[in-house]
Amino acid sequence: MIQSLLIANRGEIACRIIRTAQAMGIRTVAVYSDADANALHVQEADEAVHIGSSPARESYLVGEKIIAAAKATGAEAIHPGYGFLSENAEFAQAVIDAGLIWVGPAPASITAMGLKDAAKTLMAEAGVPVTPGYMGENQDPAFLAERAAEIGYPVLIKAVAGGGGKGMRKVDDAADFMDALASCQREASASFGNAHVLIEKYIQRPRHIEVQVFGDTHGNIVHLFERDCSLQRRHQKVIEEAPAPGMDEATRVQLCAVAVKAAKAVDYVGAGTIEFIADASEGLRADRIWFMEMNTRLQVEHPVTEEITGVDLVEWQLRVASGEALPLRQDALRINGWAMEARLYAENPATGFLPSIGPLDHLEFPEELRVDTGVEQGGEVSPFYDPMIAKLIAWGETRDEAIGLLRDGIDCTEVWPVKTNAGFLGRLLDLPEFGIGDVDTGLIAREVDALVTPPEPDEDELAEVAAALCASPDDGPFSAALGFRVNAPSRAEARITDDSGNSYVVSFDEVEADEPTADVLAFTDGFARRYVLEEPRGSGHSAVSDGAILSPMPGRIIAVEVAAGDIVTKGQKLVTLEAMKMEHSLTAPFDGVVAELNAEVGAQVQVEALLVRIEMVEV
Length: 619
Hints:
Rossmann fold; 6 domains; D-amino Acid Aminotransferase, Chain A, domain 1; alpha+beta; about 625 residues; about 25% helix; five-stranded parallel β-sheet
């Protein structure tokens, strides 16, 4: 058995691996960048090594530094987690060449399945059904546009080296193809160093079904059943569950057999996931499910498989990497109950899901759920990495029980001042379609407006908030309140404001407190608000209404679509910002003229930097 392990990753997955390794008696070594010097994974590991500055390309993506750290600390093996270098065949080979144990599949398997076009060709040859499309070498834009027209719109453009929804665009019409292609290639090049794409037929009622597979060095390969990851926003998974709703046993048997066949085609060793796309227009049918890609690593959503099988997949990875056979054979694996995972992100659904960064001054997770996280109260969300705060995982005897437990857990999740998608997640679970398992990858897009709108605070919440804000230890607790009179009944009125600028006049019962309260945090159904007693507003803050387009976060400008003096229309793209591994388009808030332009391609900008100012055109 491996005695010492370096984890070449960060955040919740690093903490997750450390937890299992230490339980197995394995010494753990963490690596960290400048931004992660005080991170939770650094604290939990037995030893930690600094490997560079904050940007991932200068630390977590530098294989030489990671291998050097392993050698310096005497680590026998390297576990890559997911993301970063986990599916980099060259890094895997370098680890092996350095005399270290690579906790993952053979480099040849990573290479075979790493490029989506080559993987589909290989799977088709192995008898695995694949979706129709173009997967060739010709990357000329005009040629690709012709192939898209032949396939028939809508089509999906996908980076061949992609993952996590990056380098992927759905195109509904030929007129939009060239812009979508350019954006997709740009994002693919920045994220994966490879701008090549493939074109696929877009399935109109798609469900994302994947099968967990596992192989060892003794020729054994098993599956651990399927997961449903259909609830996605912009191709990024949001809520996952196992097993898949609506999956009958006959379809499950056929699908899982195909997944094992795919893994055997590349002599797979370790944990892997075979991803399929299903046409759910007539329910889940084996003849309407096609191979999409293989992820040659542990998946973010692996906990739901662990919960229904009782298997610790990280423990299996470490045992297989140590040369042991799989602990269980196929006939010993069973589905027990139902599990769901919700990804809690530091993002603001009310502003188009823009990432939210900063300190985590207040952070509480539900005790009833399994919570995989890499942060703690007093930590922070960095602008340099993926904005996931935690994974909230629920297990129940039935699907309805799992939904209820996860919903209650989301209600008990409290994060401030960083904005999160907790309320959005709770609304998703409340959708009638989700409740009956009638899901597909377009569900969120169809319901997004209702999902992101915060609920109106009720009278009881406002009264409690106002009372807390106005409470004081002396006899004059309401000097800042409106409508208070000496000798009046013990009821008062105050005007309070939330962090979105909404103002409320509230009547409430007087209370006393040991000390005044400057602000009050309220968490309702996953939505967070901060209330203060209203004060006169200054004029120093720029807003969209005055035409100031500010950078929503630190990032790099990758496209400027306008020039000073240009006439623009509401919704027109002005600037594209690359931040936290994604592209964010900033658009005109109204018809007008570009009065000021402070954006240049390649420039690094800070949060709230003025990029463009639009002035209304007099008619």
